[in-house]
Amino acid sequence: MLNEREIESCYLGQFIPVHYHHNMLMDQNRMHGFKSAIAYGVKPGAKVLELGGGTGVLSWFAAANASKVYCVEFNPDMVKEARKFLAMNPNGEKVEVIHADAFEYMPPEPVDVVICEMIHVGMLREKQVEVIESFKRRYLERFGGPLPLFLPEAVIMAVQPLQQEYDFEGFCAPIVQFQETAAIYPGTVELAQPAVYSIIDFNQPNELIYSWQGKFVVERNGEVNAMRFVTKNILAVVQERSSTIDWLNPYMAVPLNVPVKAREGDVLQVSFQYRAGGSIASLQATLKAEVLYEAVLQPAQHMPAFA
């Protein structure tokens, strides 16, 4: 019998088959960003823990510098695959793949770096935030301080009003859409600039509830019928260069249950609330927009007639 967490994990996609991981391995922005961040954050001889290792590729990046890497994976099929892949790659012997629950596992010794990539747009569905907060409490109880460095180090989340086309060959279907950040979608019209609604610093304590109410100045006439959620992952802060190594998730456009007509200059108020790791539906159920102030229309200017 599966326990409650295992049932939820199946629903949330934690037991995805290995061929799905091909998409992640093919994502050059993700792979290059994490490889660079791990090479910077994992110093020679460091001890590293990865929570939710999947194929083991991020643990393998860490093994280039680390003396030991503990790679924790909950899916028994992925445990077998990760062990097989790591045996095929140099330094793979430094990585110990452990079949365990990231909510419960503690390494046998203190570690210098914790890698965790259970990231979904808006910190929804996946358990990134909850897993790390649970780990911090248990780590301090077991080993005391200081806490290890967490990679990614931070996440910046923003939201943006859209007019989104939902006509599919004449079939109207307002549905959540994921969009590549570098692509142009003719059916997507940005009606205002994005606004940041939360910044997560994994090296500090974090709440699990995101509750936000904010305002936008509408930049063009249209119907606000969706909100775009933007998630920028700060994989590492490179202090020597005062820069960061980043990875931007695909955009997520969530339809509004009640669309709103808006004109250029209107002030739009948007509100929502959800729990880290919660479902997209839980966000959509609370997502609301309304025109708070209408733009003041200027009287028409009469031009002098030509003689």
From TrEMBL:
Keywords: Methyltransferase, Transferase
GO biological process annotation, one example: methylation
UniProt keyword Methyltransferase, yes or no: yes
GO terms assigned for molecular function: histone methyltransferase activity; protein-arginine N-methyltransferase activity
Pfam families, A to Z: Methyltransf_25
Residue span, Methyltransferase domain: 48-137
Keyword Kinase: no
PANTHER family: PROTEIN ARGININE N-METHYLTRANSFERASE (PTHR11006), PROTEIN ARGININE N-METHYLTRANSFERASE 3 (PTHR11006:SF53)
Protein name: Methyltransferase domain-containing protein
Origin species: Duganella aquatilis
Lineage: Bacteria, Pseudomonadati, Pseudomonadota, Betaproteobacteria, Burkholderiales
